[in-house]
Amino acid sequence: AKEHGKSSVSVYDTARQAASLEVMALQNELQRAIDGGELVLHFQPTIDLASRTVTGFEALVRWQHPERGLVGPAEFIPMAERSGLVVPLGSWVLREACRAAVTMGEGDDAPSMGVNVSSQQLVRPGFVEEVARVLRESGLRSQRLVLEVTESVLLDDFEAAERALNGLRAIGVSIAIDDFGTGYSSLSYLSQLPVDILKVDKSFIDRVCAEDHSASVTLAILEMSRSLRLQTVAEGVETLEQAAWLEERACGRGQGFLWSRPVPLADARALLLRPLED
Ligand code: C2E
Ligand code: CA
Ligand code: CA
Ligand code: CA
């Protein structure tokens, strides 16, 4: 293997150079997309399981790429996080989502709007002030905004995250823990932080009717949620069987393809006007 070492290193270097050039080109393209209006939001409803009505939406970003068509976030969010572009991208998403929410109604029963926030955004000085300003400029009541963070945010820099979450609570914004159950979940941090909603990760919901392990994890999360007086949203509900299982166990809300995929704003608004078919 030793005599092949040199040539394999240079092959590796060439590949790595090509890869980093590709990454740089992609970063430039994404920066242009943010500035040039190539990003779009789709909205997926969350459903009250007892009444089967829409309680809110989650804003999910897509990239309307001139050559590649509609590109999903899995293909550019990781790179945006590595390059720091997730900060300007996140600012754009927050502003657009709040503007969209205002067009969905304004009364007491108007739907909530969930926005995904990456840890870089959350712990940056000035984030709470940015959220307050976007709410003011859009005219959205703070009670309607839900910021979704993953558990890993809390591992990265717990104190900065805690400070930001407390600041957000103080201005009336709700906090959801996204993909709950997949990361470092601890009762002590949950009771310590101003969290309002747990979103149970899709991987458990997928097998909730088929496998004891997923069912027990989901039950444990529902129990914990109840004792901490949090709301629970089951993510990735695809079948009526899953919806019934969750409703029987008093899970408050669900989100998933059973009711709707993420859709453009006009279609999301239409969902508010007619009863859901499921
Ligand atoms: P997430 O926050 O967990 O969002 C839920 C994802 O699950 C969405 O994928 C949604 O389309 C998908 N989903 C919902 N219900 C179902 C279902 O019943 N079946 C299946 N198979 N999938 C379902 P999407 O839109 O591709 O987003 C993927 C991830 O990208 C999101 O996961 C989130 O982590 C990230 N993301 C999306 N928008 C943003 C954003 O604006 N900012 C940041 N930082 N991340 C974002
Ligand atoms: Ca989310
Ligand atoms: Ca999630
Ligand atoms: Ca996820």
TrEMBL record:
Which keywords does UniProt give here?
Membrane, Transmembrane, Transmembrane helix
Coiled-coil ranges (or none) = none
| Domain EAL: start-end pairs | 23-276
The alphabetized list of GO BP terms reads: regulation of DNA-templated transcription
Q: What is the official name of this protein in its record?
A: Diguanylate cyclase/phosphodiesterase with PAS/PAC sensor(S)
Source organism (scientific name): Phycicoccus duodecadis
